[in-house]
Amino acid sequence: MYGKGIKRTGIARIAFLLVFPLLLTGCWNNRDLTEINIVAGLGLDRTEDGKVLLTVQVVEPAAIQSTSSGKGKGGGAQPKPVFIESYEGETVFDAVRGMLSIVDKRLFLSTAQVLILGERLSQDGIEEVLDFFQRNHEIDYSMTVLVAKGVTPKEILEMETDIDSIPAVYIRGSAENTVSRGTVKRILLIDLIKDMGGSGRQPAIGQISKAGEKKVITEGTAVFRDGKLAGWLDLYETRGYLFAIDKVKSAVVNVPADEGKIAMEIIRSKGKVKVAFENGEPSMLTVKVETEANVGGYEGKGALDSPDNLYFLEKTLEEEIKKEISTALEKTQKEYSSDIFGFGAYVHKYHPQYWKNAKKDWNDIFSKLPADIQVDAKIMRTGIVKSPVKKDE
Amino acid sequence: MEKARISSTQLFLLLSGFLFGSTVILAPAQGAKNDAWLAILLGGTGGALLMGIYAAIASLNPSKTLVDILKEKMGKVIGNMFAVLYIWYFIHLASLVFRNFGEFICTVTFPETPMVVVIGLFAVILVYAINSGIEVIGRLSELLVPVIPLVVLIISLSLITVHDFTAFLPILENGMTPVLNAAFSFITFPFGETVAFLMLFPHLNKKEKLKKVVFVSAAVSTLLGIILFFRDIFVLGSDLMARSTFIPHLTSLLIPGLNVEPLVDINLLIGGGVKISVCIYAAAKALSQIAGIGYYRKLTGAISTFCVVLSIWVYENVLEMFNWAEKVWLYYSIPFQIVVPLLLLLLSLRKKSKPSNARTES
């Protein structure tokens, strides 16, 4: 009896040990770095006959190394660090897989840094094509989404730049540094997906366009209405919009001074949008911004030696920010009638009964409401010096 | 009858792991959308009461398993019939958890691996754990279950910067009905499923602590459920939350610059593992008692294999699984989780109040 027990556990042990080699194989669909095409950037557009045109920018890791070590030698036929391919498909996924007929290795999408949407696609509607990007398990939800203005995504991805060896990384970096300028709406895929959910905020996506042969520029915002491109905001309107929705981290706002301008550096800002109600009906859109700034450059005549100077500057700064917000708000109301500020989300949260009926027509209701914009600016410090150099009168 | 003993801490951790189990991916109170936290709170209260009933049954019938109690209170024939039904219920439950696990892994982690491989390998490990005895499962839970709240904490804290703290508003947008429905389904899944623990309660070394253990674990898992809900809705918003297949997984994808999604897999492995082992253990133990086989370990292999097969066969696709978990499971569970236990409680109380009768009867 005992011996039999030992025999049985012995067999069990061997069987158990035999299971382990299975684990050594790793993932079922394991692929080495050399067996995949590392995608850095994605571009999506529609062709004239309604197909999806997918463009990928694929990194060649080996080439990147050789370019960095080969620097200084000058000239010579160096391999390009990236290659760009496009493919037309009926659907996005169709294009992703179809691409395999022109490239050698499978596309690995998790590393994609940017997704650039074309203008035509945006006018047609982006909701449908973005479904793949929510559903696929390989997609990184935190990639930056941009809309190309006046240029196709393919042209942007094809651009060769000197700034970074991988253009997609350069584009992403440029969009990311909006934290210190506030002139482009940087939106991540996940935020876009959340905004498309119809919770009372229309999506708005950062704008990218070409600034030359080897440069792009990320300034401005594409305004969407029900998933379709409605229009654009320029960089100052974008900043006003970002002030209102509390997305300005830092920025430089110029205010007029005697014979010149003063550059105010925004160091902290808080924005809040609300809707005032009267008798169960919305009566007023309110935007409240509280901001702190430093004097960053005084390029004009005058002096900064008493608090009163700063109080006066605060007033002019408030006016300036208010102007930016109100042009942005007016444009979205009158021209695009799209509530990108998220007033609807506020109504949904705090006046659910009213929202139930108004949900469908909210963009129209929003367009007709008057707005009350309050900006409270505080200027804290003046930097290393107080007054600018005195000019002789 | 083996003399295995588990401590009250181990039972607490087993219960918590069991309650957390597949709840981590299925989010049973989701039907209430923005008000799911209310449903979780109500469901948790109801669930604690239900678990209190199970604990009362166990303490009125010390050292007796569910099968013993059924046989004693309902007579041998009817008792055995009910016991067989319970065995089916435990097996079914185990295979549903297997399937949840398999679907999850095949959707998010290993999309090209056949599900039977995923489930099968998991089953092999669990059979090993179950055959090692309930004491080993208890000690394992001591080691592993504390990882669950730790993971929840890690993911929640990593996401603190992307929170929108008003996302759960408005409150009661669609009235009370969906909340009550969701609360009820939250009682049956996961709280009512702890009826399987009636096979385990006799192993507790300190009987007087049973009720406390049960209530504390119900409270802890309700709290964990609420924390999870708030984290998910703050991060995802109600629309995306309603659309996503596996909510906590999607949440974990959003941590900037850090890939923590395997942590959710780990949570599911631990919670689901505890749940399946308890169910299979309960089924094997019950079957061995009915059939008069002294040694339940002979049955675990067969039962687990059956569970694996059933788990593959039971649903056609992933949406059928969700539909079943949300709509059918709660009605299917009512007799097992509420009707029979209540009946047993009444019978136990009656016999307790008339001890002389009970003695003459037996």
Describe the protein's architecture and organization.
The complex is a heterodimer of chains A (393) and B (362). With 393 residues, chain A is α/β, with parallel strands linked by helices. Chain A contains 13 helices and 14 strands. Chain A has two domains: 29-62 and 75-233; 236-393, 2-Layer Sandwich (GMP Synthetase, Chain A, domain 3). Chain A has helices at 2-24, 61-69, 92-98, 119-124, 131-135, 153-158, 167-176, 189-196, 235-244, 307-336, 343-350, 352-358, 362-368, and strands at 36-46, 52-59, 82-89, 106-108, 114-117, 144-148, 187-188, 204-210, 216-217, 221-225, 228-233, 251-278, 281-301, 371-381. In chain A, strand 8 (204-210) and strand 9 form a beta hairpin. In chain A, helix 9 (235-244) crosses helix 10, helix 10 (307-336) crosses helix 13 (362-368) and helix 11 crosses helix 12. The longest helix of chain A is centred in the C-terminal third of the chain and has 30 residues, at 307-336. Mean pLDDT of chain A is 86; it is low at 69-76. By secondary structure, chain B is an all-alpha fold. Mean pLDDT of chain B is 86; it is low at 356-362. Chain B contains 16 helices and no strands.
Q: What count of structural domains of chain B? A: 1
Please give the share of residues in helix of chain B: over 70%
Helical element count of chain A? 13
Largest interface: A-B, 22 and 24 residues
How would you classify the helix and strand content of chain B by structural class?
mainly alpha
Average pLDDT metric of chain A: 86
Poorly predicted ranges of chain B:
356-362
Radius of gyration of chain B: 20 Å
